[in-house]
Amino acid sequence: MSSLTTSISPGSWILVTGASGFLASHVCLQFLERGFKVRGSVRDPTQSSWLLEGPFKSYAAIGAIELASVPHLGADGAYYEAIKGVAAIIHIAYVTNIVPDPSDVITPMVAGVRSIMNAAIREPSVKEVVFTSSALAASSLLRGIDNGTIGRDSWNDAVLEAAWAPPPYGVSHAMANYPASKVAAEKEVWKFVDGVNLHFNVNVVSPAGITGEPLNKKHIEGQANWVVHAYRGNKAAMDPLQASFYVDVKDVALIHVAAVLDPEVKSARLQCWGHSAHWNEVLSIMRRLRPQKKFVDGYPDLYHLEVSLDQTESLTLLKKWSDKPDRNGWTSLEDSIFENITNPYLEG
């Protein structure tokens, strides 16, 4: 790995937006471990000061990681200061509100893309930009809805239409707004790529459900911590999405690293869905790992989503940029679940 040619020089500054998030914190750590410097944008540096402690402490001591305050990701000029002197940007920050009004979720997400891209256009040091999208931008991941093969031009346009359906706004809007915001935001990214002569390369990484090691307690409590929902028997979260795809957080972070550093990756749309799995399989793994714990009963109908895709490009990058010479494929679901439930933040 250390002998690979990189698109930016080691020691360069990387801007990671939403740095305190589950995925973003792992992205920060992996860049630091590779000799890069990280500027993490967060809403409140005081509440995110844990990014300067624990596994980050030695890097903070030498000034290799710093926090920048960006309280409103969609505001004009929000990133002008944070972006100064950086060689690469990884835009992971997203609107976490689960609310019925799409203008409170989709609109600021799109504005955030415009804000970060306009800032990058102003900053001559920027050479690489990576945007974190979602598998939900390409597929609904719902049984009986998408049964085909996902390709470069696949879009979940139906959820965008559902989110922007006329008011009164209700639960159906609230459920559609997050995936719709990912569709709208990623399309806005490609609009910049197609419409402006950019001085930097742009790639997109699209993970499915993310599992694996939390670096902070708040990563356990998030709405999208699927393994913890199963661990705690949260049927309200489990029932609507019995089958999905799951990928380890460290794998997704490494794909982000590769999307920045690999000079051969240009205008890529990297799907990182990992393993197709049903809750029954997740529960079976957890019963093996924690035989003393009582888990909720399995579902009577074990099935997998019929949607399919080619993840070869992402898997090739995973192997190429891994520090494990025998690396072959995604981290196993069992290993990822083990790290998800074996940590100091999950009780019981």
UniProtKB/TrEMBL annotation:
Native organism: Cephalotrichum gorgonifer
Gene3D superfamilies for the chain: NAD(P)-binding Rossmann-like Domain
Family listed: Belongs to the NAD(P)-dependent epimerase/dehydratase family. Dihydroflavonol-4-reductase subfamily.
InterPro entries: Epimerase_deHydtase, NAD(P)-bd_dom_sf, NAD(P)_dehydrat-like
UniProt keywords, alphabetically: Oxidoreductase
NAD-dependent epimerase/dehydratase domain mapped to chain residues: 14-262
Keyword Coiled coil set for record: no
The protein, known as: Related to NADPH-dependent aldehyde reductase
Lineage summary: Eukaryota, Fungi, Dikarya, Ascomycota, Pezizomycotina
Molecular function per GO: oxidoreductase activity, acting on the CH-OH group of donors, NAD or NADP as acceptor
Record SUPFAM superfamilies: NAD(P)-binding Rossmann-fold domains (SSF51735)
